[in-house]
Specification:
Radius of gyration: 20 Å
Number of domains: 1
Order of helices and strands: HEHEEEHEHEHEHEHEHHHEH
Structural class: alpha/beta
Helix content: 40-55%
CATH class: Alpha Beta
Shape: globular
CATH topology: TIM Barrel
Low-confidence stretches: none
Largest sheet: 8 strands, parallel, barrel
Strand content: 15-25%
Length: 317
Amino acid sequence: MKVSEHIKNAKSTLFSIEILPPLKGKDIQSVFNGIDPLMEFKPAFIDVTYHREEFVFRKRSDGGFDKVFTRKRPGTVAICAALMNRYKVDTVPHLICGGFSKEETENAMIELSFLGVDNILAIRGDNIKNESSFVPEPDGNKNSLELLDQILKMNKGIYLDPELENASHSNFCVGVGAYPEKHYDAPNLSSDINWLKQKIDLGADYMVTQMFFNNQKYFDFVNMLKQAGITVPAVPGLKPLTTKKQLSILPKIFHIDIPEILVNEIEKCTDDKAVRQVGIEWAIQQSKELKAAGVPVLHYYTMGLADATQKIASQVF
């Protein structure tokens, strides 16, 4: 079932989660271990992230260096198939621009369509570590709008090969990313919303937000969406703080603010066990307030670990 249909048919706020593919060399059981304890809350869908190819320089015996490409977390398409088979749950694979050609993207969509996957989240993806700004593949999509356009064209039976005749139409429900505190490449929030509106006008069905720790940021963002004429569902993304290091790491990586009151409470903690409890309690209150406001879904970034999300969901659902 499509995410848009889940939302349309829901009588109350839905529960969903997002997971990472395991590191190369790990098996699927590590994925199942992070999902099994959460199935009691009946997730409407499970997002599976996609990770780009990166490269490292490895020194040769002659003193020179070889540029070696690696994908640290492969398996998004296969994991979606495994989850659908094991849990009978809808999956939402992420497709990204970075590290992928348009042909590779098309082939991934063909495989997903064969598997009966109904949903895709289309996002640009992050820069690789040695890039100061995002650099697309020469034959890849340059941004999320181009990626969305490719997906929606395949929904109309338009493939990269212009000589294909009577090609099958895919039928993906497509979500896009949204940023209540703006994308780090955007000069301001208004321009970011204008960019988002282009994706909605093109045909995106819903959006999932970056994590945030201040619900007012989300409520203000939704009001700005309405003023811009954007009416598709805006699914809030949530993640509990679990370590003191995240106070500096998360703002740096995701360009988000952490409320002063939450920072002060975490600074008082003497160890990460105490931090975890504070983070969970904060996320519970966030979730309850959002649910009371009638958000369509509460979407949790689990990072493959079930414990914190399980504690939150048990108090909210």
